[in-house]
Amino acid sequence: MKTHLAGSDAASIRFRGRDLVEELIGKHGFTEVFYLLAVGRMPEPGQTRVLDACLVTLMDHGWTPTSMIARLAYDSAPSQVQVGIAAGLLAVGDVFAGTMDGCARLLAEGIAKEDKAAWCQEVVQAHRAAKKPMPGFGHPFHKPDDPRPPRLFRVAQEAGMKGDYIALLQQLGRTVDAVYGRHLTINATGALAALLLEIGMPLAIMRGVSVVSRSAGLTAHIAEEQQNPTARHIWKLVEEEIPYEDPPA
Amino acid sequence: MKTHLAGSDAASIRFRGRDLVEELIGKHGFTEVFYLLAVGRMPEPGQTRVLDACLVTLMDHGWTPTSMIARLAYDSAPSQVQVGIAAGLLAVGDVFAGTMDGCARLLAEGIAKEDKAAWCQEVVQAHRAAKKPMPGFGHPFHKPDDPRPPRLFRVAQEAGMKGDYIALLQQLGRTVDAVYGRHLTINATGALAALLLEIGMPLAIMRGVSVVSRSAGLTAHIAEEQQNPTARHIWKLVEEEIPYEDPPA
Amino acid sequence: MKTHLAGSDAASIRFRGRDLVEELIGKHGFTEVFYLLAVGRMPEPGQTRVLDACLVTLMDHGWTPTSMIARLAYDSAPSQVQVGIAAGLLAVGDVFAGTMDGCARLLAEGIAKEDKAAWCQEVVQAHRAAKKPMPGFGHPFHKPDDPRPPRLFRVAQEAGMKGDYIALLQQLGRTVDAVYGRHLTINATGALAALLLEIGMPLAIMRGVSVVSRSAGLTAHIAEEQQNPTARHIWKLVEEEIPYEDPPA
Amino acid sequence: MKTHLAGSDAASIRFRGRDLVEELIGKHGFTEVFYLLAVGRMPEPGQTRVLDACLVTLMDHGWTPTSMIARLAYDSAPSQVQVGIAAGLLAVGDVFAGTMDGCARLLAEGIAKEDKAAWCQEVVQAHRAAKKPMPGFGHPFHKPDDPRPPRLFRVAQEAGMKGDYIALLQQLGRTVDAVYGRHLTINATGALAALLLEIGMPLAIMRGVSVVSRSAGLTAHIAEEQQNPTARHIWKLVEEEIPYEDPPA
Predict the structure, then answer these.
(1) Quick check: B148 contacting A, CB < 8 Å?
(2) What is the ipTM of this complex?
(3) Fold classification of B100-201 (topology level)
């Protein structure tokens, strides 16, 4: 049993067969080395650009469970910045922020189909019949269209990606509109799933990309909390708004 | 009470006063936007290069508490990649990986002193007298010298950093050698503290840089664990090596 | 919107409509008040006895992912005992320790059936056909029989439980043996699921019982780690046993 | 290297030298076995009663960082009850809920002094001069007196505790009132520190008692959240109350 990620001896440190000091520090950026470690090969420049776009998109969304939790946990353990961030990251789950998997799983299935139009029909009809939301579609707030997907698609195109997953997502989008009889936007989650598949990020660790990106956003939330504390105010708000009452007899 | 980090309306999303879609995605990389969110201004290109070097350096160290925990926790909740990563990040603490603060606090104090030589003497003597390790110095393994600091200093110099914190750390290093009567290497922790101070990263969230970087490494550990599981083997090893025995009567 | 769990004013603190100081402290034990808070009513003495038996059973299993993680995380943040415990609890998941839900879900379904024999046949046949393990049955280690279920059933009987869930689990057990053509033990997970249903613990928070119980065990692991540290030794073991190697070209 | 906590073979499971099935399940309650595992010996009945009183006191405090975090994290990962609880427990830190250590450390120091009156004077004067709060004294809300300590002291007395730590805390309280020239209540944290010292709970894992107790309260919060969700409402409240605004130029 071996690990191929990182090891060291007295004089050198190696990451995936490369010398950290001689070949990586100062020569490759964070995004490249993240890809190298996670995927196992150095990315092409276009892949780096796409991964950067994904990481930037996911970095923060203002007030979310992740940021509220991080600030509350930080306020309880202010000497331990990592505790606030890690507590917040636990909310990158099946409901928010960690939800690219669903759409990516669909796209990874559809890409192998000969007749994509038929597959799109089938998938959308099945979701509609089961009253399940189509992963990667719809947004409670950004209507009629989420502004991020078109920009992300353009970045991928300019970066020279092949575009098959994006095309499939867009074809799925046209089918969604036709089958539901109204326009449902492709959302950021859907677009990110397509882009990460374009660059060969394995589905099984896609949620890790959200986690890395959000850890940066949560660091910023803690920095702001240090300057302008909100945690005690949030606490007071909640106490006033949802008071205790003896249970009904 | 306001937040200045991120907000959105139906048509746009803003990060620190900039439009995410128009101004950031595809135009600035992860490292730049992390700095923008955490520090509050877009970094100079040289600052980005230095932050990238720091993030790359910290990304992984092979087998550490962080990576063992992440793999064990992943194996227990394989549908929840974020749980494995967050569990591992909880070990970026006062002992490993989260230890730049100590050296950074020293350097931030010393930089304000007129007579740096006197301050260095005083600090090193005080640590020696109290038998406390000098933060940022020594390495159990990389002897006589940690290979990372010289490379990190060169990156900072090439990136046009002013270099005051680095010079102070080096002066502290010469004093350490003189006072202890033997050579103690500046370690990666010390060098990273100096570099992060050079780029204006606030001391109070410096540990967040370790967390962000290590979250990328832990994603890679989970990717490798998915391919070549080690968690059950580690468990068996520990059970065999540290068996249960009834307590002595 | 209200909460009915706990609230206070200057002179008193209330838990679920009772005065903490006058009615609970010194008058009811931990197990009773846990039930009161989680289920919403004070337990009958027999229910307390059964819940105590469940909590004792789950408290520890020696070396497991939970205990290894807790000790490693504690060693990294020794000033923060809660971090070690919480990190370990993250591994009370779908794979180990948090697995009563599956069997409990089956039993909650079967209890409503008129013809229990037919339902048992159907369920066991379906699991067998799908090659899915029967939740609550089998043990890698305790063969032919897990010693805990008979004891747990006896406690429940002596405590005056009605016994319908236990009887159903036992009937399922006989069906398992007949359908598989060999004896598969009812395991502790299965028995605990039945007992917790007997006392009216809601399925949706059953895993919380594991968490509470295991938090006590992990406190003990950290106490032992403080006396006889193992974390560094585990680390060394893993490093030696699973060395780094450059990836194959 | 050995562990003395728990181990098993095919036919039996042992906790600290006792057979789980034959000697513990159904014969000893959760509180007793928690003490057995953590402290290493079976408690006296009076010690169990005192530990129960401590565990009940700490179980919940309504809206606190722990409960807000647990509910928000649960809402983000509803299939993983342990994630909500563990996230909440991370806030049992140096600021709330995990704060008995400070007072316990004082009492453990004072108990060894010959002249307790002189020691009390010295300690209280030193805290006052340094403008540091006296650990275990004062309450923002329960004025003039926290109702829990008198009840806890009575439980300890009735349970036959020796009472030296309690007497010392009370003597410290009289000194506090004299030195500060006004009445500061002994708070629950102080009283719990004294009681846990009375029963021989090691200072180094005292915070574990809070964690165990609070894990029960958080299970109840998640149960209530499942019935009457608050997380989305809290989110909306915070968004409305602390809106995003572009940073000042």
Answers:
(1) yes
(2) 0.96
(3) Cytochrome p450-Terp; domain 2 (1.10.230)
